Amino acid sequence: MLDPITIFAGIKAGIAAGKEIQSMAADLASLWDSIDSIRDEHNKKKSSPFRGSVNEEALDTFIKKKQAEDAEEQLREIIISTRGHGAWQELLKLRGQIRKERQEQERLERIARRRKAEQVTVGAILIAAMSAAGALVHFLLAKLRG
Question: How far is C-alpha 43 from the geometric centre of its chain's CA atoms?
Fold first, then answer.
């Protein structure tokens, strides 16, 4: 994934060349994906046993976070100047709504995977129990006959 500064430079160049914001939707999505990944990356690094020094991590996180914030602020200015403040607010609202919908979908998928794993476990236990019961019956019948 590209860093937000590189993506934003492409967006800025496109706007300077006369492209409409609407035609750059994929670029804007990439920018926000990059910003989100920078925010998520710090959280992952905190829990990783293979991280560098505290100072290195702090400086790296700070620089990336500030670059992401700067790119997002410049994007906000471009959208407000081309579409108005209401468009920026609408975009933020849509982004939040879509994020919540995706989180809910991921939650439901996790529940479905957990249920399926439980069903497989129960099925395996039942098969093992039935096999053990069958073996016991077979053993008892063999003892009675012989």
Answer: 13
What distances in angstroms separate CA 95 from CA 44, 69, 81, 89, 100, one per listed residue? 23, 16, 19, 10, 9
Tell me the per-residue pLDDT of 7-47, one tens digit each, with 9 for 90 and over: 777 777 777 766 676 677 777 778 778 878 877 776 676 66
The pLDDT, as a whole number, for residue 69 is: 86
Alpha-carbon gap, residue 4 to 80, rounded angstroms: 19
Give the Cα separation of 62 and 75 in Å (integer): 20
What is the full DSSP assignment across 5-38?
A: HHHHHHHHHHHHTT--GGGGHHHHHHHHHHHHHH
Residue with tokens 């019961």: 133
Cβ neighbours of residue 82 closer than 8 Å, sequence gap 6 or more? 15, 21
Count of residues making up the chain: 146
Among residues 26, 22, 46, the alpha carbon closest in space to that of 34 is found at 26
